[in-house]
Amino acid sequence: MVGTLFHPAPGAPCPAVVTLGGAGGGLSEGGARTLASEGFAALALAYFGVDPLPEDLVEIPLEYFEKAIAWLKAQPAADGDRVAVVGNSKGGELVLLLGAAYPEHVRAVVGYAPSGVVWRSVPFDREVYHGGPRSPWSYRGAPVPFAGLSGPSMREMVQMTEYFFEGRPISTRGFFERALDDEAVVAPASIAVEKIEAPVLLISGTDDRLWPSTRLSEMVIERLKAHEHPFPYEHLSYEGAGHMISLPGYEPARSWRDRYELGGSREANELANADSWTKVLGFLREHLKPGAG
Asked: Does 143 map to a domain?
């Protein structure tokens, strides 16, 4: 396990949170540090892209996260009965999976720019592509079912050429939007969010140019409604904001940010981050307080 635990000064055990980054990999500690300043025991957890973890986001075992949650619950600073998972982007996909796979361990789920569909891995190492697309996750020794991406449009091919030769970032939203139109592709890869036994809060920006997180979040809400989810759930959608809505202090890898168009105007992104942080903090305090749930 690779991570950093932040917590307030020694005292009574605090409500606990695991923070998970996205497809840039590595370890970002800023979000967990901010949560600790607000009274939480927060574990910033890496899951690939840093030694000795895997280099690429390919078939990472969900059991790794189960063990990390168990470790956190055993720490003196943490109240093991009050644990939330918070993730953004690919980490937003992951927290929904973890809530569904381990409902007995997760008391609240927060997904920034999340997806209710598991998408294929996009590894940095081209050698990993041999043999075809692979899942980013595994569970009980088997790959988690995933959806593939659509082929590029002519405009996207031009963008990709400009990226390779000029370093211009590309928008990948269209690859996901077209794939979502094929129910046969999406259905097997959709996360069984109805198995989550906890409140769910999702945050998205309508101008997300990496993937359509607003649409993907609404799919989660619709599925929870269809299954009459007995716990509170909400989707905060911010008009004109992009992909980088996140916990204060969260910093994805620079190399990842330089590859993609993330969308959103500066004003819309700042508003979304400020407003969502207030609501996320209130959500965590409400649902991780003693006796909640």
From this structure: yes
